[in-house]
Fold this protein.
Amino acid sequence: MTRADNGVTRALRRSRRRRRRLVADGHDSGAAPFDHARRSRWPTLRADVVAAVFVGGCLGGWARYAVTAAWPTPNTGFPWATWSVNVAGAFILALVVVLAAEIVPSRYLRPLVGTGFCGALTTFSSVVVSADRLFAMHHPGTAVAYLTATVAGGLAAAWFGLVVARAVAANRRRTRQERGTS
């Protein structure tokens, strides 16, 4: 046992003795101060929230399918349908993050729209499959352009979604303040 381990062990023993004395004197219940706040190692799954994620996922998957079916991509062309739904999903997710935090505090908004709808609408695997297909068809320039456009478009859409949602939230706060002072 190293000297540091010995010091830690002694400190733990002193702490336990002090706790036992407090309990014996009736000054302490014996429970750690945050025992009531400790979380389980496993998440608590609530059926209503899981159902919201499921419904949102079904709607997001259906929307992705509808867009890609209506706007098919040629084997060697730029996958505009996949790019569009991913960029739109980044915008929607940014809106949801701000709106759920500042305007519509709802237990179901983020699971329904954020996790479910946007999670099914925007999938990284579709980006990878589209890029892989372009590389396999010997169009590396289009594949690199697609990957670059996806990252840049997603970041720009998320930034714009945050700006729009924050403007809406600020306008709503300003309107409430005006009504309160009138």
